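Why do we care about 3D structure at all? Because function follows from shape, and shape follows, mostly, from sequence. That is the central idea of this module. The next example makes it concrete: a single protein chain, its amino acid sequence, and then its structure expressed as tokens.
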Amino acid sequence: MCVHVFGNTASPAIATYGLRLAVNHSCPGSDVSDFVCKDFYVDDGLKSLPTVEQAIDLLQRTQKALKVEGNLRLHKIASNRDEVMQAFAPENLSKDLKDLEILRKFAPKHGHTIPRLELCGAVLAVEIAESIATHLDLHIKDFTFYCDSKVVLGYIQNDTRRFYTYVANRVERIRASTRPQQWRYVSTNHNPADQATRSVAASKMQDNPWLVGPAFLLDEHVSTHDAHELQNPDEDKEVRAEVVVLKTSMMDPPHDQLGTHRFSRFSNWRKLVETIAHLQHIAQSVNGAECSGWHVCSKWKTVDAFEAAQKLLLVEVQQEAYQNEIQCLQAGKCLPKSSSISKLSPFIGIDGLLRVGGRLKHSSLTEPEKHPILVPERHYIAILIIRHYHEQIKHQGRHITEGFIRSVGFWITGAKSLVSSVIYKCVKCRKLRGNLGSQKMADLPSDRLETGPPFTNVGVDCFGPWQIVTRKTRGGQTCSKRWAVEELSSSAFINALRRFMAIRGQVKLFRSDRGTNFVGSTDNLGINAINVEDSSVKQCLYSQGCTWLFNPPHASHMGGVWERVIGISRRILDSLLTDVAGTGLTHELLSTFLAEVSAIMNARPLVPLTTDAENPVPLSPSLLLTQKPQQITSVTETSDSRDLFRKEWKRVQALADMFWHRWKAEYIQTLQQRKTWHEPKRNLCEGDVVLVRDKQTARNDWPLGFIPKAFPSSDGLIRKCEVRIVRDGRSTLYTRPNAELVLFYHVNMSMPI
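And the structure:
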């Protein structure tokens, strides 16, 4: 048969068969045969080759093979390269060529979420890749897929969570043809597929990624694999809720024991016993008449049920802790000397519990007191028992708590240390009797250790007040009583500060024990308190070149050096005021008394008195201030006595040098030792809960506070903290020293310390 009428049903198949037969006879197994057999559909062929030369050569050889073997003419040639088109005669080229319209697919306006649409796009990419792989004889495992949706990439690479049907079916379709490692992320800005939905200027079309592809594909260092997790799986409606399945294995413990490790889940002894009593009631109700199976009732709440449950608990604990001792006693043998309870002469009572034998058998004590039940100290149940009876006796001390436990019939081995530990961790006991915080005594500041003119560094404090009597004067007020200091305003403080500097000279550094005011009971007096933070006071200090440092509020111990001097002043002044009792204290008399107080305080020895004849004069502040002791005597200096008599200024200089020499040799060394607070304590840290001391209220009313910030000293130790206290729904921040805080709960521990 040489001729076939075209148009029959079998015409396409016969045409394809004729083409393949023609090339198989002339060049079987060659690239021409592959081209015709694999890249032709009926009479249309499509092929892609790396170079122009290869394309021209293949077409020319195919034309020749078809012409020779089948008298077939291969024409209507079209190519995307002009060089290929120019290599063939015009009659062999395709006429009326049109631009190829590249299709794009738009998402519907309604009915799908964005992740679902992106997932459908990934399925479409797989289907297109399968079609391309089939026609171009490629393996789909060699393809790389790009997606700009991290949600979809998380779906494809997920191996831990399950999806609902819509997503599950499409993910299964994708993973049936591709591997998760073939999928990578591309940002929206570099995704060529997005160009179909955006307007592009004609001048930029030639370099548009839609035509030339994304630039990152030309990079030799492209990542080979991107790992992507599910995006917010707990909030994603396409991801099924995670179902946790627990498997319970029933095992028979040795000697049919209950397993005391479960007791650690309880924090209350009574709650543990009641739970066991309830479970016993349930177990007895399996074949019971009144109660049957799992149920809720109150019939187990009896004294007998409680005692039976308590006995079961103690038996289980003793079987676990004293297994060898119980076996020896049951066999009628003596306990080994290595046993920790051998000295107690234990025996097994009629109730099956291990009890203390002891030596009190013939006493008149009750049976539980004569033969208490043994409880091992290392078992958690001992802590529950101690905690329970400690609360029963209203949080008394170790001795009373231990005695009460013995009286109810329990003998806890090593009870002293265990009871002390439980009481130390008790929340209520810490609130009632917890010690105030302390820290290792800090190093002295440099201004207390350097030499310099008197009153260069000053400590400020206030005390008083006293009532004085004013005298009737011309143009003044009549006889009345007033406070010793008439006004405690900023202007009055500035005047006092100026008078002090005028007499004592320039001050470099002020220190005070309170940051805002220095007068007590100002609210009751109805007067303004001195406030160093006032603008006028700050301006005065700034103009004088002074610095003012504050100790934390309620930290009087941090200013002990001047607090001690104020105590001395009070005692001296009280002694002087006894001489004028009942006659009225005038301003002039008070000024005189204060001057005498200053003289007495400045004459006090700074160091212990010595019996050395070379140093007959005690080292005191007055030596530096007045250059003479309390009793005027001649000064001798053994090193170079001529300096004392040459000129008056040399004499003063020699006395000053002598003071500073003795100050360094005698006084400074007395400051070396720490009188108290020798060891560093655990630092308070952010998050700790503390009890804040309030001297105006009882301890039960002290507020709880939270530490949001701690202030470390130069040695790294914490001596003051910022405490947040909530009262009446209002939060307030205070700065307090360790000495005013009781550590109530440590943030790094599961229990109070």
